[in-house]
Amino acid sequence: MLRFTALTTAQNRKPVAVPENGKRSELFAQNVFNEEAMRQLMTRDAFAAVMNAIHNGTKIDRRVADQVATAMRDWAISKGATHYTHWFQPLTGGTAEKHDAFFEPVTRDRAIERFGGGQLVQQESDASSFPNGGIRNTFEARGYTAWDPSSPPFVYGTVLCIPTIFIAYTGEALDNKTPLLKALSVIDQAATEVARYFDKNVSKVTTTLGCEQEYFLIDKALANTRPDLMITGRTLLGHQAAKGQQLDDHYLGAIPSRVLAFMRDLEQECLLLGIPVKTRHNEVAPNQFELAPIFEEANLAVDQNSLLMDVMRKVAERHDFVILFHEKPFAGVNGSGKHNNWSLVTDTGVNLLAPSKTPIKNLQFLTFFICTIKAVCEYEPLLRASVASATNDYRLGANEAPPAIVSVFIGEQLTQVLDALEVSSDNLSPEEKTELKLNVVGKIPDLFLDTTDRNRTSPFAFTGNKFEFRAVGSKANCGKPTMVLSTIVAQQLTEFKKAVDALIEGGKKKEDAIFKVLRRYIKESKKIRFEGDGYSKEWEEEAARRGLSNHKTTPEALKENISEKAVALFESTGVLSKVELLARYEIGLEEYVKTVQIESRVLGDIARNHVVPTAVRYQNTLIENVKGLKEIFGDSYQEVAAEQMELIRHISEHIKVIHSQVEAMVEARKHANHLPDFEAKADAYCNEVKPFFEIIRYHCDKLELMVDDELWTLTKYRELFFN
Ligand code: ADP
Ligand code: MG
C-alpha cells in the first residue's frame, strides 16, 4: 500500500510521495477523516448519528461519541498520528492548537493509546492568554473548545487536528468560527424560506465560499537581513526599485522554477489535507503570487484557508523562502488581498446567484441578487469594518487596491436589467408582464458570456454567478467577513419575506408582490451601485455626496461594529450579543495598537541602529576624501570637493530630521501608552504615532540613495525582488 507522508517538521525537506502513476487525484483527502473514511470505519448507527449532526445540527450522545472517537483514533494512528489537538481559530486571526498524546500509561509498565468521546467532543482550555476583550477575568480563565462536526478532522504531520469552536466559560464566543456557524445557520433559514417561493422542494441553503489567496515569496536569507520584514511582515523603509511592476511583465508571467517547486510541493500537501487547490499564477507585483482553491461550503472553506496559510508558511520554510501574507509588504507595488467569492446554493443544487434560462428561475436569481445589493447598501459600514486591520489599512484606500468605500459593481447588462425593472409599472397588464419577463428577465442568461467588463477597482463585484468581496486582507481570517455578509443578507431576506407576505395577504399575486418589493429595493439601494473607477478622486467625492461611509483607518471603521444599528442586527439574528460585540471591539483596537506600536519600535530601531550609523560611516569616508582633496589642491579644494561637501551637508540634514522625528515619535508613543481607555489609545496610535512613519521613512530612503551601496546593511527592494 502506498503511504503518504504529510509534512512533519519545517526541517523535513522531503517532498510528499507522489503516486507512481502521477495522478494527484489519488492524493486527495487521504489525510482527512471525511464521510468516506467514516462510512468505512464506523458502525452504521454511529455513522448515521454523525451525518445527522453534520447536516441537521443534532447532538451526538456520549455512546456515539465514544465510537466515533475510537474510529477516528485508529484511523489517525494508521496515518502516523501520535497526538491529537482541538484546532481552533482564536480572535488573534491565526489558528491555535495544544497537542496531547494518545499514549497513556495504565500500569507502571504498560501503556495504551487512549482517545474517547470525552476528549473528542469537548476540552477545557486555559485560555487566559488569548484575546477575550475582558469577557473573562484571568481568575476565571477557563474556556471550552467543542467539536464542530461540520468540518472534518485531519491528520497534519503527526497530529490529529479536530476543528472546534472556542467559547468562554460563561458562553460567549472567543473565536471566529462560533459566530460564523450561527450566521450560516441564520442565512440558511432565511434563504430557504425565500427560495421556497420558487421551489417548494428546497429545504436547505448552503453558503459557498472560494478564497483566492495572494502572497509574496522572498528568499529567506535576504529576508533575514531585514528586521522590519521579519518582525512586522512588511518593509518599513526601502527606496523603490528602478524596475517594479510598471512593465506589467510579472502578471501571469512564467513562474520561476524555484517558486514552481514550492507550489508543487504545497499543492501536494494541500491535496492530502483535502484542500482542493486548483489555480496558481503570478500576480501583478514582482514575487507576488496567487493560489485559488475550488469553492466549498463556507465553514469548511474558512477552516481550509486558515490551514492553508499555515501549510504555506511551513512549505515556504522548507524551500528557503519567507512567505508574506501582509497586505502591503512593499511601498510602490501592489499589495495582497484575499478575494472572497460568495454565493448560496440550495439542496436541490441551484446556485441562487446564477442567472438561468427560465423566467421564473430568473426571478429567483433577481430576488437573491437584489436582496444582496440592498443588504450591502444598508450595512456597508459593517462590511468595511469586517476587513479592518492595522495591516489592511496600508492597502485599502491606497491607489492600487479597493478603496475604503464599499460599493457594488454589477456590470452593464445587469444595470440595464435593474434600470428597466425599476421604471416598470406596478400594475402590469398580462402583455406587459410577458414582455417584462422576456425583455428583462429573459435577457439574463447572456450574462454568462459577459465577463469582459469586470471592474477590478470595485470592492464588491458581481462576477457572473457569485459576488466577490475583494477588500478582504490577505492576512485575514475569512470567517469575519463571511459572517458579516451572511448575517446582513439573512436579515435582508427576512425583511423581504415579510414585505412580500404582507402584500400577498393584501391580495396581490405572489409574483407581482415579489416584483413590487424588488422594485422598491432597486430604488433604495441605488446609491451603493457604482460602475466607474473606484480608485479615482471623483468617486471619493461622489461617494461622500451619496452618504456612503469612507473610513480610512481601523479605529474609525471598527466603531461601526458597536453602533445601535449593528447591535440590533447581531442581537436580533442571534449571531453576536452586545457583550461579544463590545469585547470584539476592544480586542480589535488592542490588536491595532499593538501592531502600530511594534512597527513604531522597529522603525525607530532600524533608523537609529542601521540607517544613521551607516550614513555616518559613509559621511566619514566623504570627510576623509575632502580632507585629502584639500591636501592635494590646497585653497582651491572647495571647488573640487563641492559635490562631496554638498553630500556631507545633506547627510547631516537627513540624520538630524531622523533623530528628531524618532524622538518625537517615542514621545507620542509614551503619551498614547498613558491614555487610560483603549479607544483613546487606538486613536492616538493612529493619528499621533503613525504619521511619523512616512516622515522617517522618507529621510531614510533618501539616505539609501546617497550612501555607498557596499555599506548599506539592509537588503534593498531590487535585491529582494529579483533573485
Ligand atoms: P477570478 O476571479 O480570478 O477570475 P474564478 O472565476 O476562477 O477566478 O473564481 C475565483 C474563485 O471563485 C475560485 O475559488 C472559485 O472556486 C470561486 N467560485 C466559483 N463559483 C463559486 C460559487 N458559486 N460560490 C463561491 N465561490 C465560487
Ligand atoms: Mg477573483
Automatic annotation (TrEMBL):
GO molecular function annotations of the record: glutamine synthetase activity
GS catalytic domain residues: 176-611
One Pfam assignment: Gln-synt_C-ter
Superkingdom of source: Bacteria
GO biological process: glutamine biosynthetic process
Family matches, as Gene3D superfamilies: 1.20.120.1560, Glutamine synthetase/guanido kinase, catalytic domain (3.30.590.10)
Domain GS beta-grasp: 82-171
TM region positions: none
Entry-linked PANTHER family: GLUTAMINE SYNTHETASE (PTHR42974), TYPE-3 GLUTAMINE SYNTHETASE (PTHR42974:SF1)
Family the entry assigns: Belongs to the glutamine synthetase family.
Protein name from the UniProt record: Glutamine synthetase catalytic region
Source lineage: Bacteria, Pseudomonadati, Bacteroidota, Flavobacteriia, Flavobacteriales
